[in-house]
Amino acid sequence: MSGRTHAGACPERTCVGCRERAAKTDLLRTVAIEDACVPDPRGTLPGRGAYVHPALVCLDQAVRRRAFTRALRAPGALDTKALRQYVEQTTVAAQATVADQATP
């Protein structure tokens, strides 16, 4: 035996907001399209991607540190309105799901 495990390797990425490593599936991929930073939840859009936790805390840290501009190698500042809207919608949906499960 070679000593290798048969468990599949889980790719990890670093959140540009909090700088913590996490499984790729736990993070939201973002890409730069023209002068905007847009969410890519399926991970299929072309171009360079940056990963962030789908939480407003990490998003705010990344915007404050200008991390998206650096990670995506954009020539200027990126508009993050679409990204913020997506994160807000997903957190509201997640909270609603948790609330529905908590009620008997």
UniProtKB/TrEMBL annotation:
UniProt keyword list: DNA-binding
CDD domains reported for this sequence: YlxR
Molecular functions (GO terms): DNA binding
Pfam families named in the record: YlxR
InterPro entries with a match to the protein in the record: YlxR, YlxR-like_sf, YlxR_dom
Domain YlxR: 13-84
Domain of life: Bacteria
Keyword flag DNA-binding: yes
Matches recorded under PANTHER family: BLL0784 PROTEIN, YLXR DOMAIN-CONTAINING PROTEIN
Name of the protein: DNA-binding protein
Organism listed in the record: Streptomyces phaeofaciens
